[in-house]
Design goal:
The protein is built from eight helices and five strands. The protein is α/β, with parallel strands linked by helices and about 200 residues long. The longest helix has 14 residues, at about 75-85.
Length: about 200
C-alpha cells in the first residue's frame, strides 16, 4: 500500500515524524505511560492520540493541570525519552510512506517537521535508516510555538527555499493538518494505527 497524494505541483515534501514516518506512536505511548506512572499519572490512549503533535513540555504541563500534579517537566521529559530509546528497536516505518521518501530523494527537497525533540527525531530516523533522506529537520527545540501553529512548516519551507504553496505536508494528526493549512500548504493525512 502506498498512501495516495493529492494532485499538484509540489516542489518539497514536509513530513511529520512520529506516526507519519516512524510508526512510533504505540512505542511513545508505552514510554509516556511508564514515565508518568512513576508519578501516579495516567495518560489514556485516546487522549494520547488526541494530543498528537503537541510538544512534550506542553503535554506534561496540561497533565499537571488536569491531575493537580506538579511533575517536573524536564525530569519527566528526560525519563520519557530514556524509556522511548529503550524501545526503539520496536519501531518500524509507517506503511506506505517510505516509497514517497525514496521517490523524493535526490529529486525534490524534503524535511521533517516534528513536535518532538531533535534528539528523539534523530534517534527514530537513524533506527529506520532514513536520516540521510532528509535535507532538514525542524524540531520542537527550533520553534517557539508548536502545532497547530504553522511556524515549524513555514521554517522548513524557508530552509528548503520553497514557497509554502509548493509544499506538500504528510501528517497523521489533526493538529498537524491544521498547521499545514495555516501555512498555506497542501497536506495528505497518514492513517493512524487504529485506522489502518
Amino acid at each position: 500500500m502506498v498512501i495516495p497524494l493529492p494532485p499538484g505541483d509540489f516542489r518539497a515534501y514536509l513530513f511529520d515524524c512520529d506516526g507519519t514516518v516512524a510508526d512510533s506512536m504505540p512505542v511513545h505511548h508505552r514510554a509516556w505511560q511508564q514515565a508518568l506512572g512513576e508519578w501516579g499519572c495516567d495518560f489514556p490512549e485516546e487522549r494520547f492520540y488526541a494530543w498528537g503533535g503537541r510538544s512534550v513540555a506542553d503535554i506534561i504541563g496540561s497533565l499537571n493541570e488536569a491531575h493537580g500534579l506538579a511533575m517536573p517537566v524536564e525530569a519527566v521529559a528526560l525519563r520519557r525519552e530514556e524509556l522511548f530509546r529503550k524501545h526503539l528497536p520496536d519501531v518500524a516505518p509507517v506503511p506506505g510512506i517510505v516509497p514517497h521518501i525514496e521517490d523524493a530523494y535526490g529529486r525534490i527537497p524534503t524535511a521533517v517537521v516534528s513536535g518532538s525533540t531533535r534528539e528523539s527525531v534523530t534517534a527514530s530516523l537513524t533506527a529506520l535508516g532514513l536520516l540521510d533522506r532528509f535535507d532538514a529537520l525542524v524540531c520542537a527545540d527550533d520553534c517557539e510555538k508548536g502545532k497547530p501553529d504553522p511556524e515549524g512548516y513555514l521554517r522548513a519551507a524557508r530552509i528548503l527555499g520553497v514557497a509554502p504553496e509548493h509544499c506538500l505536508v504528510f501528517e497523521d494528526t489533526e493538529l498537524g493538518i491544521r498547521a499545514a493549512t495555516a501555512a498555506g500548504m497542501a497536506s495528505v493525512r497518514v492513517p493512524q494505527p487504529h485506522e489502518r
